[in-house]
Amino acid sequence: MDALLDVITLILGLALGSFLNVCISRLPRYRSVVTPRSSCPHCGRAIAWYDNIPVLSWILLRARCRHCGASISWRYPVVELATALLFLACRRHFPDVLLAAKFSLLAFLCIGLAFTDLESRLLPDQLTVLGMAAGLIFSLFTWVSGILPPNAQHLRSYSLANAALGALLSAGLLYLIGEAYRLARGREGMGLGDVKLAGMFGSFLGVKLALFTIFLAAASAALCGVLLIAAIYRRRSRRFSNAARARHSAVKALRTVPLPFGSFLALSAIFSSFFGAPLLDWYWNLF
Question: What are the Cα distances from residue 60, in Å, to 55, 72, 84, 99?
Answer without folding.
Answer: 9, 12, 19, 36
